[in-house]
Amino acid sequence: MQLKKIMNNRYFKSYGGVLLALVGLVILFSFLSPHFLRTNNILTIFNQVSIIAILAFGMTFVLMIGEIDLSVGSTLALSSVILGIALSTGVHPFIAIIFTLGVGILAGLFNGVVSAKLKIPSFIVTVATMGIFRGIGYALTDSRPIPITDSVILKIGNNRFLGAIPNAVIVMIFILIVFHIVLSRTKFGRQAKMVGGNKVAAEYVGVDTKKLQVKIFMISGLAAAVSGILMASRLYSAQPNTASGYELDAIASAVLGGTSLSGGYGTVLGTFIGAVIMGVINNGMNLVGMAYFYQQIVKGLIIIIAVFIDVRNKESILGKK
Amino acid sequence: MQLKKIMNNRYFKSYGGVLLALVGLVILFSFLSPHFLRTNNILTIFNQVSIIAILAFGMTFVLMIGEIDLSVGSTLALSSVILGIALSTGVHPFIAIIFTLGVGILAGLFNGVVSAKLKIPSFIVTVATMGIFRGIGYALTDSRPIPITDSVILKIGNNRFLGAIPNAVIVMIFILIVFHIVLSRTKFGRQAKMVGGNKVAAEYVGVDTKKLQVKIFMISGLAAAVSGILMASRLYSAQPNTASGYELDAIASAVLGGTSLSGGYGTVLGTFIGAVIMGVINNGMNLVGMAYFYQQIVKGLIIIIAVFIDVRNKESILGKK
Amino acid sequence: MNTVLEMKGIRKVFPGVVALDDVNLKLERGKVLALLGENGAGKSTLMKILSGSYQPDDGEIFLYGEKVEIKDVMRAKELGISIIYQELSLCQNLTVAENIFALQEPTRWGLIKDDEIISRTRELFEEFNVDIDPTKMVEELSVSSQQMVEIVKALSLKPKIVIMDEPTSALSKKETETLFEIIEKLQQEGVSIIYISHRMEEIFRITNDVSVLRDGKYIGTVKTADTSSEELIKMMVGRTMDNIYPVKDFKYLRDEKLLEVRGYNKENYFHDINLYVRPGEILGLYGLMGSGRTEIAQGIFGILKKDRGEMFIHDKKVEIKDPFSAIQHKIAFVTEDRKREGLILTASVAENATMANIDKILNKFKLIEDKREAKIAKEHVADLKVKTPSIHQTINKLSGGNQQKVVISKWFEIEPEILILDEPTRGIDVSAKYEIYKLMIELAQKGVGIIMISSELPEILNVSDRLLVINKRQIVTELDPKNTTQEEIMTYIAGRGE
Amino acid sequence: SGDAPQDASTENDTIRIGASLLTQSHPFQVAIKEAMEAEAAGLGVEIDIAIADQDLNRQISAIEDFINKGVDAIILVPVDSDGVMGAIMKAKEANIPVVTVDIKANGVEVDSHIATDNYAGGMIAAEAMAQFLEKAGDVGLITYPEVQSVRDRIDGFKEIADTYEDLNIVIELPGRTREEAVSASEDMLTSNPGLRGIFGFGDDMAIAATTVIGERNSDTIVVGFDGLEEARNSTDADNAFQAVVVQYPDLMGAEGVRNAVSLVRGEAVEKEVPVTPGLYVHGRGFVDVEVINGKVNIGL
Ligand SMILES: Nc1ncnc2c1ncn2[C@@H]1O[C@H](COP(=O)(O)OP(=O)(O)OP(=O)(O)O)[C@@H](O)[C@H]1O
Ligand SMILES: Nc1ncnc2c1ncn2[C@@H]1O[C@H](COP(=O)(O)OP(=O)(O)OP(=O)(O)O)[C@@H](O)[C@H]1O
Ligand SMILES: [Mg+2]
Ligand SMILES: [Mg+2]
């Protein structure tokens, strides 16, 4: 049967459940609000999602090896502060961007080295650096936002490519493609999957798991720095207090998208779908004009239901006891 | 050698590292502030710590079975709102307390049932209920604090037992003892440890892991409700926005105290020591008058160092390859 | 009426696999029934149904003539059915005594009586002649000690029926003897035993009857006394096998030292190890549990850092500091604990098969090419007759023996010059063993030097060209396997004492 | 992207306003919200309220959603004065009038701005503190440096405090919620036993400090900010809480909606509607205050 063939398709197995949840939400909200399905609103959703999604792409790598990075929100804030400071010294925006990305990678390096080499659980390390990085951001700015006026930087987060697609969305899609390929098609990605599945076995076939872990945290830091640049641009200012709590949204996106918290499973594409689900929920509820408390409640329930659909889908395909 | 004997002691193995870190901090701060070691300040620290500590005691059970409860801060807030509402209807404070504890347990029940029976990762379930419970708290109060005037309730969080030890500290110690014994000496606690160590093996022996998980989340909910009562009393009002972010402090306390995030290892007593470390850091830095940003940075660094000492200590005792 | 248990028409289907199809089983009081079959024949699945972890899709179970439903593990326990699982299932984070009394702890005022648990564990150990400290953490025990704990744990419930799923695959000779004594004692007490093993000599030594499964189907039951190993193999495999060991008609290809280790030493792990292997030679390492064979292999492979000693490959001095450099020098190491060290349980058969050499499946853009991966994986599945519905099946869904085949096959991809095999045939059926030996010989023909660690004396004597006996973390002697006997080997070990 | 507003007007005739507020976890902001809802109901207009949770990015998303939805006017309590610029410009591109309340927007002109001058409020608080302490003594501040309006209050406080030589700010501790403020108060009293005054940037902080002082039987006094009912009652009671700077969230919220509606109808509104904070003093109730040329005059 045709349906059965689809159901047994490897890709359907991976993404079927979340996609189902997403489609359900889109149908729901397009009934509830006439504005929901307009092209412009769809683009808005992708634009709104871009920052969390990029964080979540990096997070997918971290979760893949069974670790966690709670510092991404703070790294984002610190990066955007660094960008603001660099620009305010008058350097070329290109240099400022390079410098900012460097700081993000450095933050990841710190997380990676401390967790891998000193053998401290990454949860603890990144809870700690969550405070440390943000504290540095505050200290550098005296907790005041730095206005961003550089037109190149402002274009990144606010203009539209060919007048249609927001630049931030282009950046997100670019990173989506690169990260997806790296995770699913390269040796590095495969090693990450192995480490997440069984660290000892990976070591026995010659994987340097510590080095890998350091690299993976650097990827997460890099993703946070990219998000930081987009954020600073979008906010017309570098805000040291921005993006707090985003780590949980990033993790939730990844898990919604089928990434396992204990490592070994996950795809960047799945994470993207997860992030879009989160974005659709937020946007849809805003369009409907739902009151704030109920938004929180409904969002929570939808997340549970979406994951439930996914779990059920995987079970019904893979069978159970 | 005497020292070696101590080093090989079971209790030293469990607690040696963290205690070392704690002693180091106490020495440091007593040099930095003449007020630090005063009896009254010590009691203040315990009092300040009590709420997080009680949350962390419940969290220790959850972490023991390899799960996580990110909703404790929201459960705390919801419980304290329920207490405020109950009191405002004029019921006897005793009834109000029972009712509040019931709501906390119910919140835990929800987390437990959804995660165990629907097989949704507890991280996702409790990220979702973090929003749901807080949303309910806001909805019930229209996001306004409810003043608490009942003298019985106010005594719980503000008076001192025999004029010396704050009641909140008494409550904390009581729960510490009960929870410690339940986790380390009862069949229930033993089963929790088994599930955390090897879920399949526990199932083979006949442990009903799902039921156990539900119960454990109920314990965490109960602990959150107790904290909620103390909080309402201490603040003279039930605040729906209270305790946000406490889940991370509670988890950090437990991990500092030697509880493993992947389950199977941990004690409530260790968690207590971890919570005290957190309290000492916060209080000490306040006494020194450290600026806010630096507090965040220093706190992060101290957490890393404390866990590092503990990791090293365990390694040097058990020996390594 | 002597029939204790009857299983009738049992059927169990997993996605893509009919694990059991109309299977029958009959167990007599005080008898030992062997359950025989190739890897993936459905033995463990049948036993998991009996012990309540799986529910059958069809079929009935009768206990003492009465129909029973075994809806969960607890129910099986109540009915007096105890099982020793094929895979270790102890809680590593608990002590030995705590594991044995799991869920049976005596309490006072709701608190567990720790002292009583320990003293009663001691009594049990004395009764079964086991020497393990009850207060030790399980994670500190060797695999074989853990298996003994598992056995005692199953017996502590005073069951009427005991299922033993490959109990000896993780046991050393001495402990195997202890187990056989235990089985004899249980039999006298009227306890019935279902015994699963791939070791023929064990079947003939301790069982009364043999039931055979093939591809999930019930083939038949025979009296052990009336049958022969050839007949059983025929029932299992569906054809006759002339030989259990393939013929290797050369000792080595060239008289040169492919790999040589001189004076390798690591305090508390191994002492003054000198050994070499020639191209095409199979060097056997034999010793008792805890004699340090695994550690020597780990030392060679760079997992354990030696404190002294030198290594030469092709007479060139090399420094192996970690598995990566070992692999660079074309050394492969098939470890003994497949779950912990060998498999990525969350990954597919294909991913496991290719993990030792990912470079091989990259295309010119350095990207993983699904087709290459599939090709390699399919070759392995075919060569070793791995029973799996697809190469994309998650590997933890395979039977134990089939998992082991994949663990071995992954190393072929690095095209090793030196292959270390630590208990490579543990849990593998006769025909697959034959395939593995054949593969070893093929590799040897290509000039690979092989070091094989084994606890099975017949195997080591038949397969290796040269034999080193290990005792107390040292090499005690070198023997020619063709001119020695099991007895002679044991004198070297026993002579030195424990 | 400018098609949204036309859609709305063709769909129906009721005026629809979108409001993005700073937070819901603060009674002051709740008061603004409720005043807006009441005023909107009174005027017969629809209002959608989105809460930014002090997250500027979320606020911008809410504004984007308002634009897509085609509201007729937008009211904002900006999370940050500088950062909100981009979103306001988007609204202007879509020809939607924008009104800011409580916190102003920098770098872009809005159609109307209604706010208390937080900086001036901080100055008033410091002046009150100086008067109560007779211009001398150690003072501690409970702060929340991440929030712009709080920074303004603290900066205003410091400006006046600096003019008194013997009035010294000896400690500043974070106290972002009432419970954190309790700990901060305890710790500042422990490390500064001679502390004579505490300024809490909000009602919750002042009340927290008051309870701690009460427990310790200290004679330290408290000056607060916001001045909602609970705080005014506490000021009236016999305790450490001596005075509170009062803002008028209800007036600001209502005025914001009125101006937004006027703008939609094409009526002229005032560009700046300054709301001078008041001062509520123990035993006196509201007193007269005036801020001119960096000087504060209090009718004590
Ligand atoms: N949970 C499961 N999901 C899917 N397939 C399974 C599962 N458990 C077992 N199987 C399949 O059922 C078949 C029988 O497996 P079983 O483990 O019973 O074999 P066995 O006879 O015990 O083999 P071995 O000698 O290797 O232990 C195998 O093909 C296996 O792949
Ligand atoms: N403290 C320990 N913690 C964990 N594992 C241990 C410990 N001590 C010994 N083991 C494991 O127990 C196993 C048996 O010990 P050892 O390696 O010394 O003997 P062996 O000669 O390899 O015997 P065999 O191959 O029969 O197990 C080894 O795999 C070793 O890793
Ligand atoms: Mg089996
Ligand atoms: Mg070994």
Automatic annotation (TrEMBL), chains A, B:
GO terms for cellular component: plasma membrane. It is a multi-pass membrane protein. Pfam families: BPD_transp_2. GO terms for molecular function: transmembrane transporter activity. Keywords: Cell membrane, Membrane, Transmembrane, Transmembrane helix. The keyword Ion transport does not apply. It is found in: Cell membrane. The chain crosses the membrane at residues 12-33, 45-63, 94-113, 120-141, 161-183, 216-236, 292-311. It comes from the Bacteria. InterPro entries: ABC_transp_permease. This is Monosaccharide ABC transporter membrane protein, CUT2 family (TC 3.A.1.2.-).
Automatic annotation (TrEMBL), chain C:
One of its GO terms (cellular component) is plasma membrane. Keywords: ATP-binding, Cell membrane, Membrane, Nucleotide-binding, Repeat, Translocase, Transport. It is found in: Cell membrane. It is a peripheral membrane protein. Residues 5-240, 253-497 form the ABC transporter domain. PROSITE patterns: ABC_TRANSPORTER_1, ABC_TRANSPORTER_2. It holds the Pfam family ABC_tran. GO terms for molecular function: ATP binding; ATP hydrolysis activity. It comes from the Bacteria. InterPro entries: AAA+_ATPase, ABC_carbohydrate_import_ATPase, ABC_transporter-like_ATP-bd, ABC_transporter-like_CS, P-loop_NTPase. This is Monosaccharide ABC transporter ATP-binding protein, CUT2 family (TC 3.A.1.2.-). The lineage of its organism: Bacteria, Bacillati, Bacillota, Clostridia, Peptostreptococcales.
